[in-house]
Design a protein that fits this description.
5 copies of one chain form a homopentamer.
Chain A lengths: L1 E9 L3 E2 L7 E7 L8 E6 L8 E6 L1 H5 L10 E6 L7
Parallel strand pairs in A: 4-6
Antiparallel strand pairs in A: 1-3, 1-5, 3-4, 5-6
């Protein structure tokens, strides 16, 4: 997983039918040589702007949705505790 | 997913039989440290040149086509709303 | 797999239900042009801070957990021997 | 997929039994920030040196071979038309 | 696949049970913009130090082991012929 910060919502009215109802967030990878990489991740946890999150990518991201038929390759799977320093 | 801009069509007359009839678009990744990365993605949504799209990669891209037997690793899964600023 | 050094714990109280009980470690990739890349990996082996570990990524990381339904894309699969120089 | 140029053959007499009979080509990624990345891809289409090809990577590359048991992570899936400018 | 050079053994006494008996090699990616990237790959072919090998990554690497339950994301699948210049 990657540590990332939620920086914005992404709105896409025209999209795959299987994606309707999902919330898309723009997240920015934190730390290390990948810092600043932007990913659009599905959020089912309710992350807020500025929160640090765990982002899971690839086929594993579909596991977050509990179904295997959605074209999703990144999902927020956890919110890093505020007092977790790293 | 990645945010990208549609910049061109890609034509390939000789290709895998399972790809016949699919539309290939050249997209350029937007923002972050991956900005400028080029990907060729299948489009089933009808994205136009200059539009900003959500691109799904890896095995999840095959979910966009509703079949698992196609050699496709990138697909446009949504079109970002024009008034979505990020 | 990647060689990486364990540098910290990651705490996420709010997370996917399937992740409850798993230990998350921040690891830093060692050597080569990826040196300094940060990954958050699940640890089921009991790696300690400062230890060098083998990190497996992608769908293969789920094999470390013996179940395929968890949204995990990185796992510590081994601890590199202290006297293994490279 | 990636756009790449075929630049050489790769010969490997000692290899996995399931790879016997497959043709391996060295391709160089074209354009964008990945330009110059080298990939060894299986070719079942008959691409020639200097031709621009579509390369599919990851699990989707196995779909090109119509079997799921081969250790192949990159395959040429199409040849870009000569008059396709991008 | 990637072309890489075998540069060392990696020893990990504590590891996943399913990895016991496998040989791990440190390989360095050759050529292109990824040159110098280090990967730890399972070797079942008997590659020697200094040899140039084909490395398969991701889920396809598990195909080299003939089983799908091992947490392995990179495997040596062939040895590039000595007289193959590229």
């Amino acid at each position: 997983m990657l540590a990332a910060k939620v920086i914005d919502n992404i709105w896409a009215t025209r999209k795959a039918e299987s994606l309707v109802g999902l919330k898309f967030m723009l997240v920015e990878v934190l730390g290390g040589v990948d810092a600043g990489r932007l990913i659009i991740a599905v959020d089912t946890i309710g992350a807020g702007f500025g929160e640090r999150v765990l982002v899971c990518t690839g086929s594993s991201a579909r596991r977050m949705l509990g179904r295997d038929d959605v074209p999703v390759d990144a999902a927020i799977v956890g919110i890093i505790d505020e007092d977790c320093l790293f």
